[in-house]
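Here's what a typical entry looks like (RING-type E3 ubiquitin transferase):
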Amino acid sequence: MMVHMEVSWLRVLLDNISSYLSLSSMDDLSSNPAHKYYTRGEDIGKLIKPVLENLIDSDAAPSELLNNGFEELDQYVDELREQFQSWQPLSTRIFYVLRIESLASKLRESSLEVFQLLKHCEQHLPADLISPSFEECIELVKLVARDEISYTIDQALKDQKKGVGPTSEVLVKIAESTGLRSNQEILIEGVVLTNMKEDAELTDNDTEAEYLDGLISLTTQMHEYLSDIKQAQLRCPVRVPSDFRCSLSLELMTDPVIVASGQTYERVFIQKWIDMGLMVCPKTRQALSHTTLTPNFIVRAFLASWCETNNVYPPDPLELIHSSEPFPLLVESVRASSSENGHSESLDAEELRQVFSRSASAPGIVSEVVCKTKRNNNAAADRSLTRSNTPWKFPEERHWRHPGIIPATVRETGSSSSIETEVKKLIDDLKSSSLDTQREATARIRILARNSTDNRIVIARCEAIPSLVSLLYSTDERIQADAVTCLLNLSINDNNKSLIAESGAIVPLIHVLKTGYLEEAKANSAATLFSLSVIEEYKTEIGEAGAIEPLVDLLGSGSLSGKKDAATALFNLSIHHENKTKVIEAGAVRYLVELMDPAFGMVEKAVVVLANLATVREGKIAIGEEGGIPVLVEVVELGSARGKENATAALLQLCTHSPKFCNNVIREGVIPPLVALTKSGTARGKEKAQNLLKYFKAHRQSNQRRG
């Protein structure tokens, strides 16, 4: 039976379908993670649209059932259109695709029902309404794909609970179906899902929180799987330490920096992450309390030495970040991956600190590295660690390794249970009344903690840290030095940093810093305090515990390695505003200016601390009075790219503070190197140079008006 239906209502439905089909002209539709579902809706819309047009032009009117069917179709078409138009790149892709998939499935089923109803009443419709036949339309709709990623995800979560999955094939399928193509997209998804989980927990929605927790685990496994694939693709002749690879780029780092969460990343990649508005740590998903990027001198130094020793040449990070696909792609990487298994190797923490802190007067062993980019048959980036004709330098430091120090090639590791048994015995020996027994135990733990990330975890889990902390007060110089070095090695593990600090190690470390029997112990104490201070809350605690004055003393009168460790620790502590004044009042500026002499090999370390201190009034005055202006100008002219950036930042602070300082800076001849910096410096260096030149111009005009 046919009933009258207003033509205007049919036009609304027709307009909605036309609006949906017009989405194909959107510039960003192809990058939408649910793009394939748009195509399915498009196929159905193109079948329905001529039927609606013919109905409007004819005198026939649909039945009530058809009215309901068309109304339902209108709802799904409208919702799908809104979903595609409202897509935001920083929203959750998994939930978005699941929502789109649900609507697309409903649209498919609803359109089938409509065509079946039309088929049943086609004898009441004009002939031009049924060409092609509704039977053909039904078959065409049935051909529209209906594979559901929701089922795959639900099954993966169930398997995950049972501890039997998911497989790598399932991970890749989920990633491909939800638009999680690149490592960056996977990490962003983890961050967004974590925020959603926190919201669910706040509203006591335990079911949703549990579901989200499962999805977070899936994204973590995707990241780890991609990381393993990239490890295999590095084609390095030796195992690459996992500590040397950036979690964002998955490549060897060349300019590692520490963020507020304590994690280390390649500078240009984490800066790109922050510039996107992502104020969270990609790895821990913690909110970042600030955007300061602290150079990780320790990792950079050991990385450079390792690369030189093993004849490995990392890619240029700037070339990577400016490529069409700066972040590794999961699906393409799976297709391009070799059959070889990747290996990982942990940092040798003690060697790392030794490499960082030894004499810089030796010839620079690692002065330049080269990069080369290859592309495989699928046009996916395969950045090989091989030599090319394009020289490229590690940033800032050029004198990392003493020629007599050879990184250890033998790794003392065993099964977790055998190491745990040995460590428990060694902890008992640490408590022995025999100095010889204590001495042997601390020396052995030092070796174990140096060799392996797994060993560091086992040693901490066996609760060796409190016993090692107590030995910082030992009257035996060897026991004290080995105990502090054990803590330094253990602190490389991020979780161990908190365990060490919470075991009350900060005050005993300061005791060693002040009264240590050996220079090695003092230097390693400073390095350990630096390691702990990468966690924001410990910056305050270390400063309030009285570490700054002995660190400044070490900066002024310690060995060269001690000076370097002290400078690094003071830099990190001075990020915290309350510590800046303490560092200045302890007399650090005079020593830092002295260490700007290239003969010490500490120009980069000294200038970055001065740039930090120049942000407060007392620091500006001290730098000006201690003769810091000429050496800062010299760095702007002759320093490294990062050194020029920091020196210019410090000079900008001084000039805007005092007309006298401004005149002194100009007299030192800073303008030509500043002009050069605006053309060839880092992004921040260019900005600071431009601002300083603008200030000089305004300063000159002000003087002319007064004259």
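The chain has four domains: 6-146, 178-321, 413-556, 587-706.

More examples are in the samples folder.
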